[in-house]
Design brief:
The complex is a heterodimer. Chain A is of the alpha+beta class. In chain A, 37% of the residues lie in helices and 18% in strands. Chain A has a domain of 148 residues: Thiolase/Chalcone synthase (Peroxisomal Thiolase, Chain A, domain 1, 3-Layer(aba) Sandwich). Chain B has three domains: 292 residues, 2-enoyl-CoA Hydratase, Chain A, domain 1 (Alpha-Beta Complex), CATH 3.90.226; 179 residues, Rossmann fold; 213 residues, Orthogonal Bundle (N-(1-d-carboxylethyl)-l-norvaline Dehydrogenase, domain 2). Helix content of chain B is 49%, strand content 12%. The chains are: A alpha+beta, B alpha/beta.
Chain lengths: 404, 735
Amino acid sequence: MTQDAYIYDAIRSPRGKGRKDGSLHQVTALDLSSEMLNTIKDRNDLDATQVEDVIWGNVTQVGEQGACLARSAVLNSDLGEQLPGISINRFCASGLEAVNLGAAQVKAGVGSAYISGGVEMMGRVPMGSDGGAIAADPTLAMKSYFVPQGISADIIATEYGFTRDECDAYAVESQRRAAKAWDENRFERSIAPVKDRNGLTILDHDEYLRRGTDMQSLGALKPAFKEQGEVMPGFDAVALLKYPHLERINHVHHAGNSSGIVDGSAAVLIGSKEFGERNGLTPRARIKSMAKIGTDPTINLTGPVPVTEKILRENGMEIGDIDLFEVNEAFAAVVLRFMQAFDVDHEKVNLNGGAIAMGHPLGATGAMLISHLLDEMERADKETGLATLCVAAGMGSATILERV
Amino acid sequence: MAEFHLNVDEDGIAIITWDVAEKAMNVMSSQGFVELDAHIDTVLGDDNIKGAVITSAKPDFAGGMDLNELGAARVSAGENPAQGIFDNVMHGHRILRKIERGGMDPKTLKGGKPIAAALPGTAAGIGIEVALACHRVFVSDRPGPKFGLPEILVGIFPGGGGTVRMLHKVGMANAMQLLSQGKMLSADKAAKAGYLDEVVPADDLISRAKDWVRGASDADIVKPWDKKGFKLPGGHAYHPAGMMNYVGAAAMLHGQTKGAYPAPKALLAVMYEASLVPFDVALEIEARWMTSVMMDPSSAAMIKSLFINKQALEKGANRPAGVPDMRVQKLGVLGAGLMGAGIAHVSAKAGIEVVLIDQSQEAVDKGKAYSETILDKAIARGRSTAEKKAAVLDRITATTDYAALKGCDLVVEAVFEDVGVKAEVNKLAEAQLGEGAIFATNTSTLPITDLAKASCDAGRFIGIHFFSPVEKMALVEIIKGRDTGDEAVAKALDFVRQIRKTPIVVNDARFFYANRCIVPYMNEGLRMLCEGVNPALIENAAKQMGMPLGPLQLGDETAIDLAYRIGKATRAAMGDAYQSTGTEEVVEYLYEAGRYGKKTKAGYYDYDEAGKRRGIWPGLAEKFPRAEDQPDVQEVMDRLALSQSFEAVRALEDDVLLDIREGDVGAILGWGFMPWSGGPFSYLDILGAGKAVRLGEELALKHGATFEPPKLLRDIAAAGEGFYARFGSQSKAAA
């Protein structure tokens, strides 16, 4: 028996700068997560006993984010101990993968509703602090030609011919779109301001945003990965072993055209048609299809292209059948490559800005893309949207939404 | 017992003396391990013995494992070689660990017996690993000896506990620095590096070690890693301070070795895995990786070529029998250019009296100054002294007077590559030489038999081909002309041995051996360029397969005008027999553009003002537009590897090369042929003759006769053999 999976709600926290002086630096990963769960419950007047599981994307699962944060968040929330929780990690797509896994189980008839989402407090639990054999175990690092993601992004730019100016121009546009979206309250339906235990607001907007970013201000930034690529420890030499037709790696990425390090969380309520009817909830969209792939771990971040090809193929669709795209702005070249590969107009992609402007809270971003996509599909009255992310170690995830 | 001897003195201190019979330097064998084990058992089991000092009866401590035994390990390990090798390595670990524990109670860490090492001189490989297992290492302050773990240089890594012990002593970053380069260090530097503890006056070596043993307490003999709460220096692989070091080390190693060598990978893998577990588990991990490296054909080939066969050639494996000692007393060098000056320098440095001759005093003074520059650099680096410099320079007489050649027993002519000029100086020199003297010409291209015509005695005329720069390049190619006699060959070999280089002896034919093989390599690169293959792919593929320089960079280094002139001369000399290499066009294009290579800061590459390569010259893409379909990197590598390797086989077929050992050693030392492979013949053996034939046939269809498998290779493939299986370790002439 298969049935359709619907999205009944999608919320996200504002993104705080992932630094000691970031507004969310005082908030624990636990509190932010349970606040998201409570918000979903409150906004939908949800009977949590009807929820099968909480699937929580989270990349750096150590310290306060360790020991299955999903279950801790449930216990810390008002949803009750009968609700279990599972933390998952597909790196940057964890939040989307949480949605996909929830949807897959609804479709399969394993439970009728899920809360899927994720969290990452990058300022509190530093990226990479969970170790990882792929980078540190020399046997695998050499077998897989490991290079850090910044180098991978620069390989994309070199391989597919994106100049520094093109990457910077993309970043300027992301900032402009995000600022405009905030000015026009386009995120209003999704944003759940972060409050303290007294109900006082800690953060109600994406504070990473830099209004007025232009080519000149970005032009002043030095390439961030040149030193580790060319000098110490010399990742470019590893990259050239994998890409021997390149003479050198063109280092074009920097803090201004790469995704921002931020704190944030997001949650999506997914359920069957019957679940909605039973609870008097109106579905916002149908989760039409989900896909994931594995690809070259060295260039690493090109996954959105093959995973999109796969999901379109599996649904008998063409790229033109998609009205709106959310392609995670891990690095400018990632999105530029996506648009180049499918010859997709920038006017269909990331219409309200993305992670370059607002930040990329690793485990949460995938679920945030769902809310971005839904908001814009509703605002612009579009039928079909696709969200996709590049994923560390050469993976990619994608989801297609259809309005109902 | 024949390798280790035990004596107990009146104080109850055992002296275990390493003294392998009939060897100048101790090496560890399986027999040695058994003996050492038995003595340690005696020391630990006899209540009258308080402790021990392990030392050597020879001037040095030990040179390492018996690499002949190691090289044969796969064969001698029995039906399941991996199990056999692993068991052997673990056997060694247990003995060294027994020394390290000294019989103490592993819980209370009390009751052990102190065991010190006293190294009178050089200790390498297992020599250092035995010392590292001891509780304290004393070393004589005698100048000269070197200490370290150089295993990586012959294709393995320290597998006698050296990797794990150095990791635990100094941390991964420091240990990698030492072990991945394999440098041997002076006593002081070795002590700082963590190999040794105390440098003491040579005469007090044993007494100081005994004093220490006498006074050592229970706490003195417990290694830090056997104490509770031990923290690995620099942190383990997932320690916040350690992790980025491991990530960086893997990338650095990968970039430097191109992933072509099994041993450096294993070395770092051991450090990573060992950093995460207790010491005894770490030793077992080391043994498992050691086994995998020993089972790898690359390591076996490297040991064979870079150690066993290289040493055999240096010791005169192909020296004519029965010719008495022909060591050079007084050397004449004709021509004080770069080659002549270099030859004069290395000879004077080896203690030979040198007369350096050129047309003008200015030229010879400049030649001698070359030596001075090198020596000044060595002094600045602390590798030489003002006295040594003066002694070397004193041995070089720089003059324009041929009469100064009187008394020379060898003359090496290194003038301009021109038959006429060479003949002229030959005559001038021979007029001054006594009857027994040998005349050698340093040439890379001119046939020796032709040059010998200018000599009054072709039997005493020989080619000695030095590589540039002479003071750095280890290979010397000795070329026999048609009439060259045994004494001339012996003389050349004895001379090469004096200047501590590695000789190969080949017969006279165009380009001899080294250049004969390197030219097809460069040409193949240029042919691909002409076909529209992306030059970056050509260069990167070459480096990826383990060549030091891509063919285009090599072209720039060796000079394009020279290639142009040699090409022209070759065409002229061969006349109708000349077959186009398909590369004349590109060489001409560069030559006519005045791009002569690195020296003109313009060649296949662009250079900056300082002569640093900036990138491939865009002009190449204009003349040779990039083809739509680019080959797979593997095909580029196959073309570059087989073009050289097949030529080496043809040199063997043609009797230019007489000994595959020389072919392999000469290729690695002469032009840096993929050292991981052990040389072209070892490479073809690793690839498998049958596969090499098939690959050649495929490439021949697409890329021409260069890849037509040589008949000898076909024969060997048909017989299901390999080159070493057929020729073994002997000259083809003798086979």
